[in-house]
Amino acid sequence: MSDWVSTFPGYRQALTTGKKMFGKIISTGPVPKHVGIIMDGNRRYARTHKIEIKEGHSMGFDTMANILELLYESGVQAATVYAFSIENFNRSSYEVKWLMDLAKAKFTQINQNGLLCKDYGVRIKILGNLKLLPADVLEILHETEEITKNNTRAVLNVCFPYTSRDEMTHAIRRVVDETTRSQIEINEETIDKYLYTGDSPPLDLLVRTSGTFRLSDFLLWQCVSPDCAIEFVDKLWPEFTPWDMVKVLIKYSFNKYWYGHSAGYGVNPRLVINSDSRAIEGDFQSVLGEAKTLLSGFQRLRNTETGEEDEEEEEEEEEEEEDEISDESSRDVQSEEDTVTSEEEAVLSK
């Protein structure tokens, strides 16, 4: 939606009402309990619109607030946002300083007003290697966690600063420390427990903006679950609207309901949602065609597991062998007939 639309009187009120309405509609179907978001594209948006990079990051924070409001209206229990990567410290000192100042300003605003946290009962948790943060930023972040610690309706995990490899390293260290104090079994569940997101539900949906098809070291352990859907969106993060998130949630709900139940094979296939799908635009014939194709694939998979496909392939191979033998016999007979005919012609000519 164009930026000029937001200047109309009553736009904010209409947007809030719309998010509540669509949130109620989405909540009637399967809703992801835990959504992860890679908020990518702030710098490219700033360069494209010829504004300062810091303004792009500021607009990205406003987008995050709008998207989170819709998610919590829809019944999402936990949202994890990639706010700052450890690798971002390699950027220019000017940009890093601005990002830290932006974090202080925005979280101070949350501490003073906190409307989103108050209205939706959101508890904010800061995930990442906090030792890398300046003391003044860390103080404000801890204050935010303290203010919202009693909220129990939903959780906002802010990864700042964070990388998934650092998270897994931290989890393994905690597991090793625990084993020195008591005997515990080390398995996947143990590592899950000691990850930064150990208190949150399993990741159901991961969204990345900017049209980049990579995970950028974000929630790598969590997103490999067969029940996690991944959505790549072409829009830059400041351009990503609540309506775009509505379409993602509806596609997730449709796929989860259709493939997770109607397939009937007792499995939940990995849902990698195609951002070019026309399901939301009403082209259900295309969606049904894709569903039939998937169901056919599931049928072949089941046949493979039960050995039925092997028997069919063996029958087809036997039929092909019989056809080949028949063709060879026909060629041999024809060759003999040709030979006899040639001999008869030779005798008659004499």
UniProtKB/TrEMBL annotation:
Keywords: Endoplasmic reticulum, Magnesium, Membrane, Transferase. PROSITE patterns: UPP_SYNTHASE (PS01066). One of its GO terms (cellular component) is endoplasmic reticulum membrane. Pfam families: Prenyltransf. It catalyses: n isopentenyl diphosphate + (2E,6E)-farnesyl diphosphate = a di-trans,poly-cis-polyprenyl diphosphate + n diphosphate. It is a peripheral membrane protein. It is found in: Endoplasmic reticulum membrane. Residues 299-350 are annotated as: Disordered. Its main location: endoplasmic reticulum. One of its GO terms (molecular function) is ditrans,polycis-polyprenyl diphosphate synthase [(2E,6E)-farnesyl diphosphate specific] activity. InterPro entries: UPP_synth-like (IPR001441), UPP_synth-like_CS (IPR018520), UPP_synth-like_sf (IPR036424). Pathway: Protein modification; protein glycosylation. One of its GO terms (biological process) is dolichyl monophosphate biosynthetic process. This is Alkyl transferase. It comes from Lodderomyces elongisporus (strain ATCC 11503 / CBS 2605 / JCM 1781 / NBRC 1676 / NRRL YB-4239).
